[in-house]
Amino acid sequence: MKLNSCLPTCVVVGLFTVLSGCATSPPPSRAQNNICDIIQHEPAWYFAAKASEDKWGTSVAIQKAFVQRESSFVHNARPPRPYLLGFIPMPRKSSAYGYAQAQDAAWSDYKQATGKRMAQRTSMADALDFIGWYNHMSRQRNGVPLNDSYNLYLNYHEGHTGFRNRTYEQKAWLMSVARQVESQSRRYEQQLPSCKIPSRLCVWPFC
């Protein structure tokens, strides 16, 4: 197939796992409630989410709802840094970082469990794989179905031991956030069938 006939019909992204690992500007806030707009903004993210779904079982919609809530699709997101007296920087309250806001300990566990020693929290492909892995562990350890985005998110936020100890019951704000994630995942799920998904992934120059 000639290159000029390939470009209009397939997404020339090279290896999508490489591109989805590169820093990409986040979709505009108004577009983040529509998964079709997110896919159009960065098609490689969809293929990375689908790969994670096929591997771990968490749907594309739930993965994307987690990322939207955790980082608003900002690759290097961190918790805000507090300042003493308004100008002296203090340590952040959490080591959460990247698209999935994975903390240091959980990320280390993920890399050890999966053998992905080079995984980066600023890579969307790695972040989505982490979310899929963590939810897989939530099902194994706490029996949470992979379509239960509400309880999956509570596990994700509180940790598996915290969820078993029901620490979230003392955090009304967190349960509210988990409901928001649930609503977002359902919205994405309803939107997905109408999205224009690239029909094939074309690796230039072999189109």
TrEMBL record:
Q: Which InterPro entries match?
A: Lysozyme-like_dom_sf, SLT_4
Q: Which residues form the Transglycosylase SLT domain?
A: 11-195
Q: Out of the domains of life, which is the source?
A: Bacteria
Q: Which Pfam families match?
A: SLT_4
Name of the protein this chain belongs to: Transglycosylase SLT domain-containing protein
Tell me the organism. Nitrincola tibetensis
